[in-house]
Amino acid sequence: MGNPAPRTCCLDLDTFFVSVERLLDPSLVGKPVVVGGRKGERGVVTAASYEVRALGVRSGMPMYEAVRRAPHAIFLPTRHGIYGPYARSVRALLDDFTPRVQTASIDEFFLDFGGCERLYHDPGDADADATIERVAHQMRLRIEREIGLPASAGIGTTRAIAKIASGRAKPAGVCLVRAGQELAFVAPLAARKYPGIGPVAEARLLAGGVRTLGELLRVAPEGSHHPFVGLADMVRHGIDGARAAALGRDRPAFQEHDPEGATAGSISNERTFARDVRDRRGVEAQLLALVERVCWRARRRGVRARTVTLKLRYADFATLLRSRTIPATCRDADVQRAVQELLARAWTRPLGLRLLGVALSNLVAAETQLALPFAAHERPDEGRAIDAVRERFGYDAIRRGRVGAGTSWLA
Amino acid sequence: MDLVAPKKHLVRLLARCQGVADKRSTMPVLANVLLTAEGNVLHVAATDLFLGVRGSTEAMVSRAGSVAVPARDVFERVKAMPEGPIHISVGDGSATTLKAGGSARRYTLHGMPGSDFPALPQPSPDAPQIEVPVATLARLIAKTHFSISADETRAHLNSALFECLAGRVRMVTTDGHRLSKIDVMVEGLSEKSAMLLPLKAILELRRLCEEAGEGATVQIAQSGPNAFFTIAGIHFSVKLVDAQFPPYEAVIPAVTNRAVRAPRLALSEALRAVSLAASDRTGGIKLAVSPGSLKITSESPESGVGFDELAVDYTGPEISVGFNARYLLDVLAAIDEDEVTLGLSGELDPAVLRPGTEGAAGHGDYIAVVMPMRI
User: Fold this and answer.
1) Which CA distances in Å does A123 have to A12, A131, A136, A140, B357?
2) Optimal mutation site among B149, B177, B248, B367, interface A, most CBs of chain A within 10 A
3) B251, B348, B369, B370: which to substitute to probe chain A, counting the most A Cβ within 10 Å?
4) Mean pLDDT, all residues of chain B
5) ipTM, 2 dp
6) Is the bond into A171 cis (omega within 30 degrees of 0)?
C-alpha cells in the first residue's frame, strides 16, 4: 500500500465565544457583539462578531480600543466555563470522522484525513480531493445542525496551509488547497497571515519592503544570506506538502499522543486585571488561580514541569519575568511554592500590578510509576479528584478555596 | 603470633567477613580481616566502620598476638588448602605465613599490624536484649528485603525498620513505590523498640541466618548508636541509620474496594510470561479483572504484545490497573501460601497483596502494598 497523501484539515469555530453567547441568548444574533469585558473595564477582546470585525475589532485587541472602534457594540464579559462543554461536543463529533483529531485550542481542531479517501469515496466525487472537501462540508453542517455553532474548514497538505485555508473559508465555509497549489495560494497573502508571523516580524518585513508571502519567498531564496531567510525558510517548509509527505513517510501528519510533542514547549496562563491589584492577598489568590490552571493543563497533557516562570507587569507597564527550576512536578502545591518565592523576589516596587502570568516549561513526561503517598500533602487524591470532577463537569465546576475569596475585583 | 586452627572453621569465619570488609575504602586497613590469637582461641573480625563482624574458633596458640591480612586473599588461600589443620605464623613486618598441616602447600601474605585495625563497638553490659528464633529473623527478612530502596542517598528508604512490640516483632521496608510489612509473634516479648537497619546489614543478616540453621536463636541488643546480633557464635554489629522512616501506617489502605483471590503460582507464572513482552524500561503490565477472570496484558512499541488470562475468584465490577510486573513477582515469591488475595481500589490507588484468603491463619501478618503504574 502506498503512503497516503498528506491531507490535514483545520476546523475553526467562527467567533466561538460570540457564537456560544448567541446560542444562550438568541437576541444577540445579528447584533454587533464583543466578548472580553464590559465597557469601561480593562481587558482584551476574546471574540468579536463579524459585525464589529468590519470595524477593525480583533480578538487580542485591548478593550478600550474595541470600544473606540465600535462604541455601539454589545460588550459581554468572558464567562470561563460555559464555552468548554460546547468545544467538547464539537471534538466528540469530529472524532466520528477520523481517528486522528488534535485539539489545538478551545475553538480550533486539526484532523488528519490522510488515507481516509477511500473510506469516504462516493461515485459522484471527481477525485480524492473532492471526496475530502465534501466530507468537510458534511462535518461543518453537522456541527451547525447538531450543536448550533458555525464553523469553517481549511484543507491542505500541511498544517500551515490548512490553517490559512480555514481563515479563507470563514465565515461558515470550506476551502481546499490542492497539492501543488500551495505556493500560488499563499503568495498573494499578507505576510501576517502566516501562522508564526506576528506583529513584530510583520513590522520588520514591512520595514524591509516585504508585504506578501510571495515577496518574502522571492527576496530571501533558500540558501541565501538575506536577513529574512529564516522567516522565508519557515514559510517554505510549512507549505511544502511534498516534503511533508516525504518526511512523514510512516507517520500520520501528526499524532494526538505524540510523547515528544507533549513535552515540547510550555504551558502558560496570564491574566490582566480590571483594576491594578495592590494587596498581597489579592495577588496571591490570583497566582493560586493561575497555578491551578497551568498544573491542571500539565496533568491533562501527562507532563511535569521543571521550570516555573512568573510574569509580572506593574501598573506602569514595566514587565518582569522570573524563573526557577525545581524537581519536575505537576502538583499545585509545588508550583505554588515556587511562584510565591519568585513573587517575593520580583514584586519589590511599591506599585500595583496590572498583569500576572505563570508558565511551566522544561516539560518532561509524567512519571509512570506512582509513588506511595507518604506525606499528607503528597497525596495524589486531591489533584486527581479535582481533575475527575472537571472531566465530567468542566473546569469551573470545582475551584481551590482561596481562589474564590477576594475575586470580586476581577475583570 | 603463632597458632594452628582447623580449616573448616577458618573458612566459615573468613567467609562471613567477606561481605563486611570494605575493599574500596579510603582506609586500606578496612580491606583486611583482623586475626587475634589469645588463650586457646583465634578471633576473626572485619568492619567497614558501619558493620562489624566477629567470630572465633578454638586454636592451639603457641604465641598470642594479632595481624590484619587482606580479607579476600586470606579467604581464597585458606579455601585452597587441603582439609585439616592450618598453621598461621606472623614474621617480621607482619608477613603472615599460612601452611597446611601434613602438606607442603604454603602461602605468605603481606599483613599490617593488628593494632592498626579499628576497634569494633561493644554493647554496654546493661543494654536491653531480646532473644528470638533465627527462623523468625529469617522470616522477617525474606518477606521484606526486596522492597528496600537501593538508593544509598536516601538513607531512610535504604534501610529496614525493625520493631519490637508487645508479643511480636515487625519488619517494614519501602522504596517509595512499594512497601512490605510482616509481623511475627514472639512469646513473652515486652520490649518496645525500633531500629533502622541499613540494606547492607540486612543482606549480611540474611546470610548469617541461612548459615545458622534451624532451631538456633539470635540475641539482639541495642546500645548507643549500634545494634548487636549474636547468631551461632558470630557477633554482628550494625551502626543504625539515623533517619526518620516514612509513616508507613498512613499508606497501608485500611480497606480495598475489590478483592481478587488468585492461585499464587499460576499468577506468578503468567506475570513472568507476559512481562517478557513488557517495555524493558518500565516493565509495565496491565491487570484487568472481571468476574471470574484476570487478564494480563503488556504492550510496548518496542517489544509488541503479550497476553494471558487466569481464572480467579472475583465478583465485582471490572477494573483495570497497570503495574510494574517485577514488584508483584517479588511479593509472590515471598509468599508461601497457595493462594493470594489482591486488593484493588482505583486504577491509581495503592494495591494490596496478602497471603491466603481472608480469615485464614497468617493472612493478617503479612501485607505488601504496591503502587500502580500509569500506563
Assistant:
1) 29, 9, 17, 21, 65
2) B177
3) B251
4) 92
5) 0.83
6) yes
Q: Tell whether A1 lies on the interface with B, counting CB pairs under 8 A.
A: no
Measured CA to CA, the distance from residue A308 to residue A353 in angstroms comes to 19
Could you tell me which of B329, B317, B319, B374 has the C-alpha nearest to residue B353?
B329
Q: B residues 345-374 near A, CB within 8 Å?
A: 348, 350, 369, 371-374
Chain B residues whose beta carbon lies within 8 Å of the beta carbon of residue A371:
176-177, 371
Write the DSSP string, B166-190. TTEEEEEEE-SSEEEEEEEE-TT--
Closest by Cα among A329, A270, A319 to A295: A329
Give me the numbers of helices (H) and strands (E) for chain A, helices first please. Answer: 17, 12
For chain A, say whether B312 makes contact (Cβ under 8 Å).
no
Residues in contact with B164: Cβ distance below 8 Å, sequence separation at least 6, in sequence order: B130, B170, B189, B191, B192, B193, B194
Listed in sequence order, the residues at least 6 apart from A285 whose beta carbon sits closer than 8 Å to its beta carbon are A402, A403, A405, A406, A407
Residue A119 corresponds to which cell in the numbers above? 473510506
How much is the average pLDDT of B200-217?
92
pTM confidence score: 0.56
CB-based contact A370 B251, cutoff 8 Å: no
High-pLDDT (> 90) share of chain B, % = 79
CB A369 to CB B177 under 8 A?
Answer: yes
Grid coordinates of B285: 503490565
Separation of alpha carbons B183 and B169, rounded Å? 6
Name chain A contacts of B375, Cβ cutoff 8 Å: 368
User: How many interchain CB pairs under 8 A, A with B?
Assistant: 44
The pLDDT tens digits of the residues spanning A186-237 come to 999 998 888 878 788 888 899 889 999 999 999 888 888 888 888 888 888 8
Nearest-CB residue to A380 (from B176, B247, B348): B348
Q: Does B304 touch chain A (CB under 8 A)?
A: no
Nearest to B138 by CA among B328, B272, B336, B329: B336
Nearest CA in chain A to B349: A381
Q: Got the DSSP string for A65-99? A: HHHHH-TTSEEE---TTTSHHHHHHHHHHHHTT-S
Residues of B in contact with A374 (CB under 8 A): 176, 246-247, 250-251
Q: pLDDT class for A375, splitting at 50, 70, 90?
A: low
Residue A65 annotated to the active site: no
Among the residue ranges A42-51, B199-208, B222-231, B354-363, the one predicted with the least confidence is B354-363
How does DSSP classify residue B214? T
Assigned C-alpha cell, A92: 466528540
Determine whether the interchain pair A373/B251 forms a contact, defined as Cβ–Cβ distance below 8 Å: yes
Say yes or no for a CB contact (<8 Å) between A376 and B246: no
Q: Under a CB-based contact definition with an 8 Å cutoff, are residues A381 and A372 in contact?
A: no
C-alpha distances (whole Å) from A101 to each of A178, A245, A253, A380, B229 are 21, 18, 11, 30, 65
Q: Which single residue is written with the C-alpha cell 508507613?
A: B248
